[in-house]
Design goal:
single chain, Pdz3 Domain, 2 domains, 5 strands, globular
Length: 176
């Protein structure tokens, strides 16, 4: 388990370097690298950006796999078992906030509340770019499946699992 956590920390550190570079250079994953005439933009380091974008995709996939491995490991552990190699898992970074919940909706029945901070929604986290563009498609593709949502409420991480059973989700979230 500690190996998985260490790998996750290494990946997060490398992702932070990439995100810092993107932020410092006002770049997003979708920033065009060509000008209007179709030539490479001379104000950008095209090679570095391309390499970082490719590495970002690899790291995000690795991070998702490691998070799934950690989740599977934790599910297999007895609830009362204590382990000397456990490290406290740091709070993840929220990427959106719940602005409203429709009464009697899936989100309401699951226990989500207005002003909950979303840390993870299925595979989406602060490390996933274009969350709001991809989330509706994810919800459509996963109708009938269970989805795990991790929120931060009163400085506590809370995990909800609910089924996207075709009823309205009833959840309005906005970016932080």
């Amino acid at each position: 388990m500690s190996d998985l956590i260490n790998k996750r920390e290494d990946i997060n550190n490398e992702l932070n370097i990439i995100f810092s570079y993107f932020k410092d250079n006002n770049i997003k994953k979708s920033t065009p690298l060509l000008d209007k005439e179709g030539f490479p933009r001379n104000d950008l380091d095209i090679v570095t950006i391309t390499q970082y974008r490719q590495r970002l995709t690899v790291l995000q996939n690795d991070l998702e796999r490691i998070n799934q491995d950690i989740y599977k490991f934790l599910e297999q552990q007895p609830k009362t078992a204590a382990s000397s190699d456990r490290k406290p898992i740091k709070h993840s970074t929220p990427w959106s906030i719940v602005k409203s919940i429709k009464p009697s909706s899936i989100a309401d029945n699951a226990g989500l509340l207005k002003d909950d901070l979303i840390i993870q929604f299925g595979p989406f986290s602060h490390l996933t770019l274009d969350n709001f563009e991809k989330l509706p498609g994810f919800i459509q593709e996963n109708r009938g499946n269970d989805v795990r949502v991790i929120i931060l409420r009163d400085n506590q991480e809370i995990t909800y699992t609910f089924n996207l059973n075709g009823s309205p989700l009833g959840l309005h979230i906005v970016p932080l």
